[in-house]
Amino acid sequence: MASTPFTLLSLPTPASTKQALQKFLFPIQHTAGQYRDVSLSFQKGHVQVLHDGLDTRHFSFVWLTSGWNCRDIAYALRLYFEFTKTPHSYAEKNTSKITDCMVFALHDLPIPDTVYVSRVNFEASMPLIKQVCGYPLIIKDIRGSKGKDSELVTTESDLLKKMASLPKNKRFLLQRFIQNEYDWGIMVVNGEVVSGEKSYPSQGEFRNNTCNGAEEHFAQITDIPQNIQALAIQASGLLGLSWSRADIIIDKFTGLPYLLEVNRYPGITADSTEVLGAYTFLASHITPTLQDTCILPVS
Predict the structure, then answer these.
(1) 266 in helix, strand or coil?
(2) Quick check: 1 pLDDT over 60?
(3) Which residues face 61 on adjacent strands?
(4) Which tens digit of pLDDT belongs to each residue from 112-136?
(5) Cα angle for residues 80, 82, 86 (degrees, 5° grid)
(6) 68, 154, 255, 264 — which has fewest CB within 10 A?
(7) Angle formed by the axes of helices 226-238 and 97-106, to 10°?
(8) What is the spatial distance between Cα 224 and Cα 219, in angstroms, rounded to a whole number?
(9) How many CB atoms lie within 10 A of CB 276?
(10) Which of 254, 270, 116 is nearest to 180 (CA)?
(11) Chain-centroid distance, C-alpha 130
(12) Domain 180-263 in CATH 3.40.50.1110
């Protein structure tokens, strides 16, 4: 019997996905997708979702992930795939760092002291900001990633100046700055830690993102402290995620961990344990779909 090609659409496509797919014992026809190439049409009695002109229902599996700025589209696609019974991964309703902070704080997870106020009431809220966050503090875009539009502020006048210079169409939260030497990036798949790295910031940089010059050091799972693993697993579980990476910063003076954020679209560093993590995640979704196909393993 002839085999049916297994087709995968990833939206969007993390770097080094190809390495993860090479671990499968059967061929996968992979389409490296982008949300900018998705078109939606709504007519009476008919909904159509295309990627680069192709009907998305015809893919064997669709891997949905989403940064903050495209979560509404990802969730809309999830609704469509649920209705059309197209195998796919989970996508959340539209959220932000504000909703994440609410979830974590209500469940007593350690996060940096945080304030969110509207820009209209910003100056009037300066006493609250000083009381809760103190100085120095970090300004963060509530839907930002890779440290973009993040600022380190050391004084009240500096805060007012930098807030005035930031994009007017965005909203920001403020967090107490945690003095640190590194943070942990812990990848969690289906409730288990599959990869962990320490990120050391470059000289003079307050952000621990690799795109801002931070240096990655991957660790064996057994070398990741149990409390760090437990925090990452709990955060992922509270958000209902089966694929994520938690960024956990370590206070250089107290050694205490603080959960900074949970990334739904983590990068995959080539030749690292993150590649195996991506394979583990995909295999947990793809394997069940094979029951309805004629995929033949490669001999």
Answers:
(1) coil
(2) no
(3) 8
(4) 999 998 888 888 889 999 999 999 9
(5) 90
(6) 255
(7) 120
(8) 7
(9) 17
(10) 254
(11) 30
(12) no
